[in-house]
């Protein structure tokens, strides 16, 4: 199988051009290629597929093989791949996802895409503002936001000090979230900057999460903690999030990078 390794601020996926490649069992392929010791090494698998209603379609799979409805860092890389590899010839494109069609506005340098702004749509509050929860032996408060996939935002004083490998699974699998949840741990730095770490459903701690950063920014805006345009600082870099309250749409801007191309033998899976 031919693939391209790409990353958006350290949230890395194996991308497969499904206009040319066929994958019979993407869940198993995702588990196989994601393995950082026996596979390629990634947070999951993303397929760039033909679409009947948009310029292309993104299917994303977490490291554990589960399919996600939306991926903020992934969709920026899908846009870059589609433009740089000639699937589209416009810097303004629509990408079909399981969470609906997303519009991408891309910026290029020397004919290659370097940054992408994604219209993430209208976020939805999925909890009380905030809601109490007993998790990991503590009484905490979270704010639930859906941007096509589910997020729970927790405000903490010491983001760097959290042992996410230890506590993450309790947050992900809490009974309040029957479909599991992506969990964001957030510190407000000032009215224009927040720091965030994420424990992703299906992939564990990743260096960044675009939908998570969007949800965290929107929660912070709803709580009146920050302005309507904010920089979210993650382990792998920064994302700009802007909420246009008039239309309700939220926009995420960040880089997209191609790391290398390769070919992998999948016969071990057959
Ligand atoms: N890393 C992604 C989110 C991937 C999907 C998520 N783990 C889920 O299962 O909902 C991002 O950048 O948004």
Automatic annotation (TrEMBL):
<feature type="binding site">
    <location>
        <position position="182"/>
    </location>
    <ligand>
        <name>substrate</name>
    </ligand>
</feature>
<dbReference type="Pfam" id="PF01678">
    <property type="entry name" value="DAP_epimerase"/>
</dbReference>
<feature type="binding site">
    <location>
        <begin position="72"/>
        <end position="73"/>
    </location>
    <ligand>
        <name>substrate</name>
    </ligand>
</feature>
<dbReference type="GO" id="GO:0005829">
    <property type="term" value="C:cytosol"/>
</dbReference>
<feature type="binding site">
    <location>
        <position position="149"/>
    </location>
    <ligand>
        <name>substrate</name>
    </ligand>
</feature>
<dbReference type="InterPro" id="IPR001653">
    <property type="entry name" value="DAP_epimerase_DapF"/>
</dbReference>
<comment type="pathway">
    <text>Amino-acid biosynthesis; L-lysine biosynthesis via DAP pathway; DL-2,6-diaminopimelate from LL-2,6-diaminopimelate: step 1/1.</text>
</comment>
<dbReference type="GO" id="GO:0009089">
    <property type="term" value="P:lysine biosynthetic process via diaminopimelate"/>
</dbReference>
<comment type="similarity">
    <text>Belongs to the diaminopimelate epimerase family.</text>
</comment>
<dbReference type="InterPro" id="IPR018510">
    <property type="entry name" value="DAP_epimerase_AS"/>
</dbReference>
<keyword id="KW-0963">Cytoplasm</keyword>
<feature type="active site">
    <location>
        <position position="71"/>
    </location>
</feature>
<feature type="active site" description="Proton donor">
    <location>
        <position position="71"/>
    </location>
</feature>
<feature type="binding site">
    <location>
        <begin position="210"/>
        <end position="211"/>
    </location>
    <ligand>
        <name>substrate</name>
    </ligand>
</feature>
<protein>
    <recommendedName>
        <fullName>Diaminopimelate epimerase</fullName>
        <ecNumber>5.1.1.7</ecNumber>
    </recommendedName>
</protein>
<feature type="site" description="Could be important to modulate the pK values of the two catalytic cysteine residues">
    <location>
        <position position="151"/>
    </location>
</feature>
<comment type="subunit">
    <text>Homodimer.</text>
</comment>
<feature type="active site" description="Proton acceptor">
    <location>
        <position position="209"/>
    </location>
</feature>
<feature type="binding site">
    <location>
        <position position="62"/>
    </location>
    <ligand>
        <name>substrate</name>
    </ligand>
</feature>
<feature type="binding site">
    <location>
        <begin position="200"/>
        <end position="201"/>
    </location>
    <ligand>
        <name>substrate</name>
    </ligand>
</feature>
<keyword id="KW-0028">Amino-acid biosynthesis</keyword>
<feature type="binding site">
    <location>
        <position position="11"/>
    </location>
    <ligand>
        <name>substrate</name>
    </ligand>
</feature>
<keyword id="KW-0457">Lysine biosynthesis</keyword>
<keyword id="KW-0413">Isomerase</keyword>
<dbReference type="GO" id="GO:0008837">
    <property type="term" value="F:diaminopimelate epimerase activity"/>
</dbReference>
<comment type="function">
    <text>Catalyzes the stereoinversion of LL-2,6-diaminopimelate (L,L-DAP) to meso-diaminopimelate (meso-DAP), a precursor of L-lysine and an essential component of the bacterial peptidoglycan.</text>
</comment>
<feature type="site" description="Could be important to modulate the pK values of the two catalytic cysteine residues">
    <location>
        <position position="200"/>
    </location>
</feature>
